[in-house]
Amino acid sequence: MVVTSALTLGKTVTLVEVALIGACSLFLDWQVGGKDLARLAYWGGYGAQLVPVVLVAYITTMFSADIRYGLNRAKLLSETDELTGIFNMRGFVAIANRLFAQAQRYDRPASLLMVDSDNLKQVNDQHGHEAGNRLLQHLVKAVQSQLRFTDVPARYGGDEFVVMLPDTPARGALEVAERMRRAVEEAPFSTDAGRVPSTVSIGVASYPEDGRSMDALLARADRALYLAKEGGKNRVARFKPDAAA
């Protein structure tokens, strides 16, 4: 029972359980066995019985904690982009789907932003891929500086990122996107050869007017991003139904 508790319920519950076992043993010895609890020999025997239980409980809880840490670490790594430290698409989809389901259930707005670097290829070509990786990290920091703790950024792939803005209508999403764009533009990226201007283009799509499923919002935010790129880059664009070719 102690081993099962240690493996499944954690340290605190197991400690309480061991304490109760010890207390019950004392009570039964006193109430039923009539043993003299004041005798040193009794306490020696009592300790010889209880100490192994405590040791087994302690070792098992430590073992269980290591297993849980390893599993949680593996889960975290499987859902996190190694380069930027934000969610990868696996982690993003799991969280964003829950947030989107809440928006549908309670009839609340939600928005998606698709963010893309305008000059990663240029940095890679002129300064190397290590500089390109640092540029992506630089962009993520600038983007995160404009987000609430409830917003969910993730790396969509390559130099493209997606951000879920729960409880945010289109107007608010456009304001957030514009703050992001300015934050990136106003923080030039430093390379070994000096500072390099850096900008992003951002596409915006909102629930419910631009789509009633996560897949639809992702596709339409991506389409809006294309419009921003096509319009000259370093700008924010919202999805337009008549432009959904």
Strand content: 15-25%
> How many structural domains can be distinguished in the coordinates?
2
Structural class: alpha+beta
Mean pLDDT, nearest integer?
A: 80
CATH class of the largest domain: Alpha Beta
Q: What string gives the helices and strands in order?
A: HHHHEHHEEHEEEHE
Main sheet: strand order? 2-3-1-6-7
Largest sheet: 5 strands, mixed
- Would you report the number of β strands? 7
The CATH superfamily label of the largest domain reads Reverse transcriptase/Diguanylate cyclase domain
Do you know the CATH architecture of the largest domain? 2-Layer Sandwich
Radius of gyration: 29 Å
- Termini gap: 64 Å
Shape: globular
Count the helices. How many? Answer: 8
Proportion of helical residues: 55-70%
CATH topology of the largest domain: Alpha-Beta Plaits
Low-confidence stretches: 1-9, 69-74
What is the strand and helix layout of this fold?
Elements: H1 2-8, H2 11-33, H3 40-78, H4 89-105, E1 110-117, H5 120-127, H6 129-144, E2 152-157, E3 160-166, H7 170-185, E4 189-191, E5 194-196, E6 200-207, H8 214-230, E7 236-238
Parallel strand pairs: 6-7
Antiparallel strand pairs: 1-3, 1-6, 2-3, 4-5
Properties at a glance:
245 residues, two-stranded antiparallel ribbon, alpha+beta, 2 domains, Alpha-Beta Plaits, disordered N terminus
